[in-house]
Known about the structure:
The complex is a heterodimer. Chain A is mostly beta strands. In chain A, 0% of the residues lie in helices and 54% in strands. Chain B is mainly beta. In chain B, the strands form 2 sheets. In chain B, strands 2, 4, 5, 6, 9, 10 and 11 form a 7-stranded mixed sheet that branches. Chain B has a 4-stranded antiparallel sheet with strand order 1-3-8-7, with no helix packed on it.
Amino acid sequence: QKEVEQDPGPLSVPEGAIVSLNCTYSNSAFQYFMWYRQYSRKGPELLMYTYSSGNKEDGRFTAQVDKSSKYISLFIRDSQPSDSATYLCAFDPYSSASKIIFGSGTRLSIRP
Amino acid sequence: NAGVTQNPKFQVLKTGQSMTLQCAQDMNHNSMYWYRQDPGMGLRLIYYSASEGTTDKGEVPNGYNVSRLNKREFSLRLESAAPSQTSVYFCASSSGGAGETQYFGPGTRLLVL
């Protein structure tokens, strides 16, 4: 079993739709849960991170973590064409080396 | 602040040639990382440096060497390039420790023929 599973997409939705992106993981040691956004031909940038189970909201973005099910989600409300990017989930096992484990990424396209 | 810079942006090599990918950060970060990104594989850690003077292997270190030249600079060397090393290489830095944000450079696209 892979340590992190993420549907690669591509996912195409109309502007204004609610988008749901998901990852599952198998390592119970993961303590920090992150979402990075990567535009085409650019480096990833941190979008959101949470430390515990529950929801965290930032504008149109909501990150949700369910540690009991080992499942994390990112919701995007009122999606915009500028949200078109690849979204990578990422996990930090709280080691001193801070070695983050990344999902393979989901390509998202928002149609105007 | 430039953040994390990488050079070159794009490189074509022939099998067996060597090259060094350069990375520098101006955020006074302790930790630096080299990743490769391949379609369907996500980001895989090649080497990292938790602090100046230390380096450690990541998930896919074979065929690569690194040098933490000083706190700002972390280079990745391919001694004898192979087609399997065709990839996009990203350098990242963070202040270190658990939960700290990693800041990525723009990437180097490498094609090995």
